């Protein structure tokens, strides 16, 4: 019998952890494993906002795939997925085509701009290493330009963050950290720099614990962040944004709008003809697609309903890593024909969000709220545990976050 | 009798050295000394091309004025000179007006664009700290953009340097040094980056020693610099340049044109009604303006004719520093009414130009040609000697160039 071909699309949290687990569990003569990714590195999406602010170098956030994947056991193909043909068990890549017996779709998210005019063209997104690095350089370039131009253009020093979810709030915290250093580098008085958050709801972190949310807002406001809540972004132009609040249209001059208010599943899922719900595959308990016994979906590509609330669980790095355990186990079962497939049960361990400057908030297991240094340390522990799982002690030592006072 | 007011305009090489010398020579009760400068720092113009390439941080190139000027003895006014009214012995500043008994004009150079269309709007110049820092950030931003954009735009990786004089050649050398590091930072294959020099004459460094010039070109070409000589820049657009060579018009796509092909004297001199030659004051032997016994001009604002060749000496940092000795002495003589004023005699010690990457060329005293490490060391000695003169051992230790192998 032919060795089955296992193809994993995407080296995000779910994809790379599945590959790492399979390379440990499977023998080379049992299956051929192929990992496809657009870049030759994996990156921690949850660290990108630090790269985008310039508080952490992007090389700290990315990990060469060959550092954690044993390329004797896993074929690595650096390419971009164009489409999946589940009927033919094929994946079309920009530079080729792959046949699979078992497929794992871990293609991650895309930014959703909800048709807001100008957003796609003029706003920046914290989406990958390239886009995060660009934001950092764009900030620096505008500070340099401000200082260079005779006619001072304050729009160059106004930074607008669209959306007050976890990404937006985390990024505001890093920006508040970064601005004093940026101002020193460019001889700019920091009191004239504005960091502005625009949020549609009446508060940032809507749905999150109100006490912790208030703590976060106070912490950020004390470091100069301005919140405009209950405001809807209407348009993003190269040199300003227009928003509506209380029925009135307002403008803020800015060259830097960072859109952190919406993600959606990768469009390849729906374009490839899978049954989908808002672009995500509503997977079975064993994380397989409803129509195909040989296709798993993971992370942002998988939709899992919380039966208690009848609404979907949020896609988090935590969930994707947990799912990789189930997916790897179930692939083993299919390859070795050992019987039952495991069911995935989410264990929500809670959320910890950094606010920059040695501050953070957390709402972890059993409603334990934390803030300040305790939450900062918890956040670094979570980040470090992931590195340990992914690449062992060596990776942890190279990329871990140890200096809690940085 | 009223204490005379000595006003020094500009804290470039000539101005700041005059101030430093006067604060040593004069007692506080003999005269009031005021130094006016646009920034609260002095900078070494001859190091700016390193800042613009990103091979040296701009803080290494600038020196806070209060670090070398004793502000108990010299009043420092941070302001921009608008005009001089020599008849009324007044200087108009953006935020005030100063009366003088003795004036030193050391306002430096401006870029000359010779009316070439688009150059003023779209090209960059290595003129001051702000413009050099902007070039560095502009390069980084374009490298980030190249990597971010799906449709690859090679114009972002083409860097055009207009002019193959000492500034242009020095900058090409620094760029050749910088590109490998930039490529690593932005994940770009360095073979696709182009550094292109456009020079109107048939060779770079026209008029300089032909052997050393050939050495410089070979050194730079071996590190990937392309020379287009005998070519005239016709237009600079935001995304490309147009030049003419052998009667044909050619285009190079580029977002980064650095114009290093022309300087002229500060326009304030001619606008203030001084008798001038191409914007410079053709000073007497004692460095005073022909029409005014109380006005000295120094550095780029002074024109001094070489009587042997009947053509002007080039304005160099070396000359400005030498002139400051004469100007300071002559101001002393005027204040103390001790008699004769010194005549300035240029001592041309020669030229050493860095080619980056531990290479340089020099043509120093008595036609002694040097290249390679010898010239590199000579260049650093010259730079370090200036710091020693300006601010003593303390300044030399803080800002000097000691690591000859970096």
Labels describing this entry:
homodimer, about 400 residues, alpha/beta, FAD/NAD(P)-binding domain, four-stranded parallel beta sheet, 26 strands, globular, NADH dehydrogenase-like protein YumB (chains A, B), FAD/NAD-bd_sf (chains A, B), FAD (chains A, B), NAD(P)H dehydrogenase (quinone) activity (chains A, B), flavoprotein (chains A, B)
Q: Would you summarize the structure shown here?
A:
Chains A, B: GO terms for molecular function: NAD(P)H dehydrogenase (quinone) activity. The structure is a homodimer of 406-residue chains. By secondary structure, chain A is of the alpha/beta class.
Structure in words:
The structure is a homodimer of 406-residue chains. Chain A is an alpha/beta fold and 406 residues long. Chain A has two domains: 5-111 and 264-349, FAD/NAD(P)-binding domain, CATH 3.50.50.100; 119-261, FAD/NAD(P)-binding domain. The first copy, chain A, has eleven helices and 26 strands. Chain A has helices at 13-25, 48-53, 58-61, 65-68, 119-122, 129-148, 166-186, 210-222, 267-271, 317-336, 373-399; strands at 5-9, 32-37, 41-43, 62-64, 74-78, 81-85, 90-93, 96-99, 102-105, 109-111, 158-162, 194-199, 225-229, 231-237, 240-245, 248-253, 256-259, 263-265, 281-282, 295-297, 302-303, 305-306, 311-312, 350-356, 359-364, 368-371. The first copy, chain A, has a five-stranded parallel β-sheet with strand order 5-2-1-9-20, covered by helices on one side. Chain A has a four-stranded parallel β-sheet with strand order 13-12-11-17. In chain A, helix 1 (13-25) packs parallel to helix 10 (317-336). The longest helix of chain A is centred in the last third of the chain and has 27 residues, at 373-399. The radius of gyration of chain A is 22 Å and the shape is globular. The mean pLDDT of chain A is 94.
